[in-house]
Design goal:
Strand order of the largest sheet: 1-9-8-7-6-5-2-3-4
Strand content: 5-15%
Mean pLDDT: 95
Low-confidence stretches: none
Structural class: alpha/beta
Largest sheet: 9 strands, mixed
Number of helices: 18
Helix content: 55-70%
Length: 349
Amino acid sequence: MTARMYYDNDADPRALAGQTVAIIGYGSQGHAHALNLHESGVNVVVGLAAGSKSRAIAAEAGLRVMDVADAVKAADAVMILVPDTAQKAVYDAEVGPNLKPGALLLFAHGFNIHFGRIDPAPGIDVGMVAPKGPGHLVRTVFQAGGGVPALFAVHRDATGTARARTLAYARAIGGTRAGVLETTFKEETETDLFGEQSVLCGGTSALVKMAFETLVEAGYQPELAYFETMHELKLIVDLMYRGGLNFMRFSVSDTAEWGDYVSGPRIINESTRGIMRQVLHEIQDGTFANAWIEENETGRHEFERLRAQDRDHQIEQVGADLRAQMAFLNPVVVTAGQAQAAAGKPGAH
């Protein structure tokens, strides 16, 4: 069965007419949602803590800024865009007690609803709009006249208007320009976590590091190893992004294509698939979520140890030196201090 995509014509902007939308948080996703909504004609208010440095930035962008509780009180729809690990505390203290009856509570990731961390009152609509890209793309692609694809879901429709309002929100941030796919909080949460861990972040990072280490241990120059295992990865991913595996294989040499077929399945094999299934099971049964929640509640010591360990990996040192000579890449450097300051950053959902 082919999944249905929803586009501009499927989303009625009148579903949010005359309503105020509160964006809680003004990070990567928060700034993009707030500005895109504002430019789509939606009445937007940004809810931030009294001491937040983002207050001045949001106000300078022409947005109305309030304390979180006041923003929620003023809103008919509330999108929570603070980090997953901070959402429960913010919800319990400032969002939940101040929601209007019949308000639409929105999320960009299903983590806290699916794992029971947040359970809104029965009369509250609960929906999700999850862009499939980081906030800066949600913003820049919108400004260029396009949109980033998104997922949407309705967890609870207490008023009978939740689905229409959720789709209208997706349209207002540009999602329906590219297409939005209907899902559930369970499906979005579990597939999103699995994708991050198995391929997008965990799997790719581990594969790149191990390939780099294998070449360096065999006596090859670290700089050459960097180019072969990390730098060129973007070229291959861009080909897959545009035309799938077939276009990538069409574009590379026959030698590279033959190596893909005969060596790829030896490196990523049935043993890997078994571990992937185990990772997925731990996501599904809550093992991962419980461990991550506990890690945050007990000081994030293992998280910080692992972050520091990889920050000093040889591939990072070699890569930083090489990228510094390639101004066309617009290279960036994340310092230890910046990483610490961004400890509560929202995800790329």
